[in-house]
Structure prediction request, 613 residues.
Amino acid sequence: MHKGISGTESISAEDRDRLAEAGLEFEAVNRCGSFFQIDQEIVHSSCTEKGIEIYPIGDALSKFPWLSDYAWKLVSPDKDEYTRYVADRPEPKGYVIIARKGSKNIMPLQACLFLEHAPIQHVHNIIIAEEGAELHLITGCASSHTTENGAHYGVTEFYVGKNARISTTMIHKWGEKIDVLPRSATRVEEGGTFLSNYVALSPVRHVQMYPLADLVGTGAVARFHSVVVAPPGSLLDLGSRVLLNAPDTHAEIISRSITRGGTVIARSHISGTKENTSGHIECKGLILKDGVIHAIPEIEGTVTGTELSHEAAVGKIARDEIEYLMARGLDEEEATATIIRGFLDVRIAGLPVVLQKQIDAAIDAAEKGF
Amino acid sequence: MLTIENLHVEVSGKEVLHDINLHIGEGETHVLMGPNGSGKTTLIRAIMGFSDYVVTDGRIDYKGRDITHLPIHERARYGIGMMFQRPPTISGLKLGKLLMAEAGNMPDKVSEYVSAMNMTDFLERDLNAGFSGGEIKRSEVLQLMIQQPDFVMLDEPESGVDLENISLIGSAIARLVEKDRHIINRHKSGLIITHTGFILDYIEADGGHMLCDGEIRCHGNAREILSVIKSKGYRECIECTKV
Prediction:
């Protein structure tokens, strides 16, 4: 069966390149399935992997009445004006993914949300990994090179079942006058693992998100990694919050932020409320040109058996590092780019090789702009 | 190969080196000795061109060309290499990636050199992150083997190195400065800072220099200078004003 994406013939070569930089494979060679939404039109939704199903959310809500126990249960429709906007749409858009009990995809499933003409693109996604399932998802979000103004409102609810695992890798490729407001939350049950990777290296006007992971089952794990660059005129207000609400749970939040003149607010919060829990925040920022990096790591413990730590650093590239590489024959520009590339290089434990390569490729593509 | 004339160098606005004169010929390796704080590291860093080391007077000629104000990378590309005593840790930069960047058009040599320096397990490690003293030196020598400089400067290659690694590093340095070749086929040169003189077990130095208080107090046979230091300490050198 041909896995390539249908319904995308009208997309220009320039936009195909942008989408590729956001991690989309039109031929889906290294993907087990694809979901593609242009503005509010869902043009493709399929998955060939046994045990993993993907549906447009409208179809899924009709097909599976039990989904009402999941929709809007982790993110409240009344959370803010953006969630209310999404909840009030008469025809919901977005996708539902269900990884059935014990299923596992070697190749990731890809979802692409492409903003072309609509002033506001809205999506509501629900991702469920049943007991013992392993699901890897890559989401490429991009706007057309011709899109001047626009906004993306996205609500995503992740359910990680007992001993299940979900990795989600989101790569953004928006435009200079695009506002992006994702609202997501995750619930992780006993022995479950949730990995979230976020990469945003292209110009965007405003991104604001603060995803939450609630670890409710013993031994659950959540890891958030983000790699972002803020060009002039951009405001990236980003963060992650993890609640260690069951014994033996663990969280890690790692962020790498660079400003080239824009503003990055790097928030993070880990709350340990149960015995034998641990969490660590690593928040590093690099100021290449005058801009703002405001790191706000928070750790909050309420019982004796929780161990939480954080490290945060904001500064410029050390001169001795640049000159060390120059002594090896790299010119100053090459040395600087090499150090920045290393700064952004975050290895993510448990991530499939194909996804790590996708993240590396996105950073490599952006390297020339540093 | 290298000629330094009347060199004065400032660090943070304070003159550290005063009127340095030094000549190292093609195929020669010299040893630089002196007490802590005498200016040895300052001298090789000034030759490499680091920005904190400001030449206020004098000149550095290399292969007949005035390099006094050349940028660091141009000196490196022109054939000057340096082993750092305390190289920086660069997070995220894998040793293997740096080696490939340095290798240029001879990447096939990398694996051979990596094996020779027992660094295979370090290729995916961040540069110098958590490296022991010996591992740092092996990494530095490995990079120089790939860089193949014509003139190599080594800042205390023995410091922090255990006996097993000393042999490996000493032998590799000897090859870097072509001490494994017959003297008439030797074209590479070196300047080695040493406190212990261990390197003289692996390299027959062609000259020695004693640096005290930012001045070269004597030139001569490296073993003889070392012998004086071992028997009488640096006191005589500090008191001596004769070059």
Summary: The mean pLDDT of chain B is 91. Residues 133-147 of chain B form the longest helix (15 residues). Chain B has one domain: 2-90+150-239. The first strand of chain B starts at residue 2 and ends at 11.
